[in-house]
Specification:
The chain is about 10% helix and about 35% strand. It is mostly beta strands and about 140 residues long. Strands 1, 2, 3, 7 and 8 form a five-stranded antiparallel beta sheet that branches. A hairpin with a 2-residue loop joins β7 and β8. The model has no long low-confidence stretch (mean pLDDT about 85).
Length: about 140
């Protein structure tokens, strides 16, 4: 059985919007050998960036849009620009971004291309660049 688009909209909105179970948390950058469905970072093959000014970025239910449907794709995305702190030294190359709530990885995405912040630089995601989708 497959969920309808209407049901997928309800799922995304109930999880990330309003008072959803993951309506607040943190956005973490990490370096990974391959995509991982691990529920924790760090874990085997996953190393969260650390030091040199790196910090997880908080998110709330206002960070993401309400779910929209385009064709068979139902998605939410970040509303505004998300900017990480300025690196005070060279960071590891970030290959993935994770949404973490109460210490649990809820969703993750591979960064294409991987992102690098050297001393004095920042990593930034423009509105719409972080997308969670159901198809």
């Amino acid at each position: 059985m497959i969920l309808t688009n209407t049901a997928e909209v309800a799922v995304l909105d109930s999880v990330f919007s309003g008072t959803g179970i993951y309506s607040s948390g943190e956005l973490a950058l990490y370096s990974a050998v391959a995509d991982s469905e691990s529920s924790t970072i760090p874990s085997a093959g996953n190393l969260e960036l650390a030091g040199n000014g790196y910090a997880r970025m908080p998110y709330t239910n206002a960070t993401f849009t309400t779910a929209t449907t385009v064709g068979d794709k139902v998605s939410i995305s970040n509303v505004g620009i998300i900017t990480y702190p300025t690196a005070s030294g060279n960071w590891l190359t970030a290959t993935h971004l994770a949404i973490i709530s109460s210490g649990i990885v809820v969703a993750f995405m591979q960064l294409m291309p991987p992102l690098q912040a050297n001393n004095g630089q920042t990593i930034q995601f423009l509105a719409g660049e972080i997308e969670i989708e159901l198809t």
